[in-house]
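Recall the central idea of this unit: under ordinary conditions, the amino acid sequence of a chain determines the structure it adopts. In this exercise we apply that idea directly, starting from the sequence alone.
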Amino acid sequence: MPAISLITLAVADVARSRAFYEALGLPAKPPSNEAVAFLDAGGVVLGLYGRDALAADTGLADARPGGITLAFNVATRDAVSARLAEAVAAGATVLKEPREMPWGGVVAYFADPDGHPWEITWVADFPLTEDGRIVLEG
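Accordingly, the structure predicted from this sequence is:
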């Protein structure tokens, strides 16, 4: 089965975004430098790359955020609020406060300094491993 191994975000300032994500607990690893950062996101690498450089590399006219959300799943309903507080302390903007969902989970949304939307969610049907990975059974 193919695996998603790296997700790259187009950012205005690599150093600022690197500091933001490191404050959320995602450490940068080599070969990170001033032009690109690679963060250990628990089995998936989160890449941070300058917006103009990514647009040039991909041929996109504009590499601004839109159309997707990324997510941190947490092990308990109370951890949603705690993780949101960590994101805000690191410089995030709250998009939606934690709320109970009709399907039984708890969800909150924030935007990183470049406007990339992130979801923080607790879902009883998504048990997590000790390192935070979702276990899909069946």
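The mean pLDDT is 91.
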